[in-house]
Design brief:
Length: 427
């Protein structure tokens, strides 16, 4: 059963479990990456047979397979995917940056260009679960940014097929190419390229400990979105909150993983006790009850604060991935929140709404990194290049200042490169 504690009985660092996987995967992943770098597709096909039990001759998904998948998906679900994709596009379209130019001094032009990265690589987990939401959330911002190509990797099942809903979501999102490969080997293929899979500039998407370690190891060769930790939710709730709702929202994260953390912070002892009891009612009803039970018992917490502002300060201290404000007038508290991956406002906004449908991205900073990191966005798929132009007359106005600055740093060649252009009257 989840514990109820008063504020001060647990430190901020202990509120979320933030455990590190017990398996040491570093050496295994290094070996996989080196094999893929050396042997390309041959290594990928071997790993597909070893890990996915799929004997493939080609790893690229064909257009025929995509069309078959779309025909196999419930039309009602296809409609929902389309609606979700539209919401995601509408939100992320507002994130598009513009280049700028400044020309407010005679003979001087400075500016910045916004340039999309050429190629983005999306990792989508496979196994027993399918996550079409990940496909939409992680690829639509890349397409809006203007990436020339977005490729996706995802492990096949033992029949050598990809889950139809994954392929349907990829089609809706406009992904250019799809490959049947998962695990650390897929990350290696995206980072270094193989005969079939092109080398990308950035890798995004969640995965298991092996995928996370592979992303860590290839970082620098390519960019990555983040190293995601176990899922987290913190609910700030007042005494008027329905305990059934709070318990259900806690379990929406607890069912992800035994390492996930679900925390309620409230100013009401009565609500704390009611949620504690409600969790015991709802957990046995879940399909993933064993996972949720372990998560709640080992990592879940209910904390009773003195008031709501103290509850929000607790949230700011731990910078949760998901933060729910189950209070009246949640916008009154919005400016007080400094650190959270995504904020869900009011009593009718469960975190699941953000996972699938509302539009804001569900790829969020975890493990306290919301103190300095942001959700996945269009910004993740662009880079900025700056430029400078001076006429000779404009340079003459500032050359001595530049030379003085350079000389102060002991870099006389820098100084000369500015002065020499203004001393040569033949130009």
């Amino acid at each position: 059963m989840i514990k109820i504690m008063k504020f001060g009985e647990v430190s901020p660092d202990e509120i979320f479990a933030r455990a590190v996987p017990g398996v040491n995967v570093e050496g295994i992943v290094t070996e996989i990456i080196e094999n893929v770098k050396e042997n390309g597709d041959k290594a990928l096909l071997s790993y597909c047979e070893k890990f996915d039990k799929a004997k493939l001759t080609s790893i690229q998904v064909t257009e025929e397979e995509i069309n078959e998948a779309i025909n196999a998906v419930d039309p009602a679900f296809l409609e929902i995917l389309e609606k979700a994709a539209a919401n995601i596009r509408k939100f992320h379209q507002k994130q598009v940056r513009n280049s700028f130019i400044i020309n407010d001094q005679p003979g001087v032009v400075i500016g910045q260009k916004i340039i999309p990265i050429d190629r983005a690589g999306l990792y989508v987990p496979g196994g027993t679960a399918a996550y079409p939401s990940t496909v939409l959330m992680d690829s639509i911002p890349a397409k809006i940014a203007g990436c020339r190509e977005v490729v996706m990797v995802t492990p096949p099942n033992k029949d050598g097929k990809v889950n139809p809903v994954i392929l349907a979501a990829a089609k809706i999102a406009g992904i250019d190419r799809i490959f049947k490969v998962g695990g650390a080997q897929a990350i290696a293929a995206l980072a270094y390229g193989t005969e079939s899979i092109p080398k990308v500039d950035k890798i995004v998407g969640p995965g298991n400990a092996y995928v996370a370690e592979a992303k860590k190891q290839v970082f620098g060769k390519v960019s990555i979105d983040m190293i995601a930790g176990p899922s987290e939710i913190l609910i700030v709730a007042d005494g008027a909150t329905d305990p059934r709702h709070a318990a259900a929202d806690m379990l929406s994260q607890a069912e992800h993983d035994t390492m996930a953390s679900a925390v309620l912070v409230t100013d009401s002892q009565k609500l704390a006790e009611a949620v504690q009891a409600e969790l015991e009612i709802q957990i046995p009803q879940l399909e993933r009850s064993n996972i949720a039970r372990a998560s709640i018992d080992n990592n879940g917490k209910i904390i009773v604060a003195d008031d709501l502002m103290q509850a929000i300060e607790i949230a700011n201290e731990i910078a949760p991935e998901h933060l729910e404000l189950c209070v009246d007038d949640p916008f009154d508290y919005l400016d007080s929140i400094r650190h959270a991956g995504s904020i869900f406002m009011g009593r009718n906004c469960p975190e699941a709404l953000g996972d699938y449908f509302a539009g804001p991205n569900h790829t969020l900073p975890t493990s306290g990194t919301a103190r300095f990191s942001s959700p996945l966005s269009v910004d993740d798929f662009i880079k900025k290049t700056q430029y400078t132009y001076y006429t000779r007359d404009a340079l003459k106005q500032v050359a001595k200042d530049v030379a003085f600055f350079a000389t102060a740093e002991g870099l006389t060649a820098h100084a000369k490169s500015a002065i020499i252009r203004t001393e040569d009257d033949k130009q």
